[in-house]
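Support reply, case 0932

Customer input (verbatim):
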Amino acid sequence: MDIKHLKHFLALAENLHFGKASAACHISLSALSRNIRQLEEELGASLFNRDNRSVQLTPEGQAFVSYARSALGEWDAIRSQVQDAHDQLQGEVSLYCSVTAVYSLLFDLFQRFRQDHPNIEIKLHTGDPDQGIAHVISGEEDLAIAARPKNLPRELAFKPITISPLVFIAPKDQSNLEQPLITPTSPKEWSQVPMILAEGGLSRQRTDAWFRAMDVTPKVYAQVAGNEAIVIMVSLGLGIGVVPKIVLDNSPTIDRIQILDVKPQLEAYDVGLFALKKNLKKPLVRALWQLVSQGPIDGDEECLPRKVRE
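Our regenerated output:
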């Protein structure tokens, strides 16, 4: 079985679109289709149901996803193991994070990583950071940058990078608004102000808990996927939002936003790097993990909140 064919299969399983998968793999549509058919012939089963409009994994294809990810991981590990100690590490490692993390946290990291490991390719995928942990646990990504949840899954290792307050924000200039937003000072006022909140994830959980403690049912104007979009909507005067301050600091609309002095404050984000503990034995994953700090790879210390460690 050709390792490249496994990569092509995973690309199609992820995109469920031949055009997008062929572009991601830098091969032609005909070559991708041919490689998938060859895999299916070797397995004796169909991996995808496809027609002119859609591509879907069959039950056999869903089972084969786990095998392909495991096989590629083992391949990278053994290839690194048999290389001469003086050779550079080679291969690829995947990282999932938000666009904000790319701007604020990854520039220096990638620069140092490229200098130390010029033959390792980083596959960077961006999206909702609340999905990062799930992508790592499922094996879709090697590493992810996200906020540490209250209860860390036992199979995950966590390495802190920075602390970011979770803040209430409002438009700074309200002169053009039909109904200016008044900073709430009482539960009654909080129940009347339009709120722009995350659809789910850690931010929404902590915001909902804050409102419950205040005995307030918030007036939700919009539920948004992505903190960057919340900042934009608030800057337009559509309501009060809640975002990590690191997102606001890197927003092009920061000059149009004010942070509200709200008490009690929301619990801050402990932002860091996540990986499966078992994958830290892989040289490529370990190389990127070690570059974040010089702390230990394993152990309980990696899984404690920063203020506990200190």
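We compared this against your earlier run and they match. Two observations from our side: Residues 59-82 form the longest helix (24 residues). The chain has three domains: 1-82, 87-162+270-310, 166-267. Please reopen the case if you see a mismatch on your end.
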